[in-house]
Task: structure prediction
Amino acid sequence: MYHFLRNILFLFSPEWVHYFSMNGLKLLCSIGFKKLIAKSFTPKGNLESEIWNLKFPNRVGLGAGFDKNAKYLNELEALGFGFVEIGTVTPLPQAGNDKPRLFRLPKDKALINRMGFNNDGVDAIALRLQKTKKQIPNSKMIIGGNIGKNKVTPNEDAWKDYEICFNFLHPYVDYFVVNVSSPNTPGLRELQEKDSLRKILTHLQNENEKFESKKPILLKIAPDLSNEQIDDVIDLALEIKLDGLVAANTTISRERLITNQSKLEAIGNGGLSGLPLKNRSTEVVKYICDKTEGKIPVIASGGIFTGDDAKEKINAGASLVQVWTGFIYEGPGIVKNICKKIN
Result:
């Protein structure tokens, strides 16, 4: 059924379809259909998983970039997600890059995006989270806060942007992900260098100590890092006792795509996600988990469409998995279908 509907939706602009679909789901939930939707899509059984002293209802989450502004948490819970990562959130609101900025590659089961951290800004998002917590007080879904810097902020001041977002969101999210690996903010990936990372992460750890309830801090890395660069990340993570890693963000690579080269050239720059990222993402997860002997929990992201894809990531050492592009292609039953395999 969904695959038929998807063929119709794919006739329209990806960004328009995203908001059309989610606002439609929001409407259905608001007029009393949430329980019916949840009954259809919430996975059954005892699927709870505890990491960082957090109890995840199941190990399948939705990656950052889908619900950037924390507008659809109630609806995403109805679809069975064990956790949702909001953002990327920046201190100031920003419009992001010019449209069109989201592109489908159906032959490759992939997407290319160059959104550019478009979001409502941390003030508005923190307020929305506060209201959501009051509206659904019994929610067991875990919320992650993916934080970044504004485009206009120079790299040497980036730590200030991460601090602002961290402090504003701290009361309302369950864990944090520091995003220095998006390819769509000029110069951002330079912050993946060891010294830059140390400054940002240790500062956030110091801020964390000021709160009565400490929140886990994770780092999201790019799949395009060399093993030597990943080694630097691992060394730093172990040194400062980072809580975890997310592997991996979108890639700038265009290798081995089926999509016509002329179409790729017409689309231009952006981060590639989806099935072409599956193998590289698994390689990075396995490399990290083997190298650290499982001492650093990893959330696996990249190319997860089926239960077997998720199982592959877990067998590589991942503690949790995140979908995004797979959700677009496989539809609202993806969490339930994955949980059947990884239970």
Notes: The chain has one domain: 2-342. Residues 28 and 34 are 7 Å apart (CA to CA).
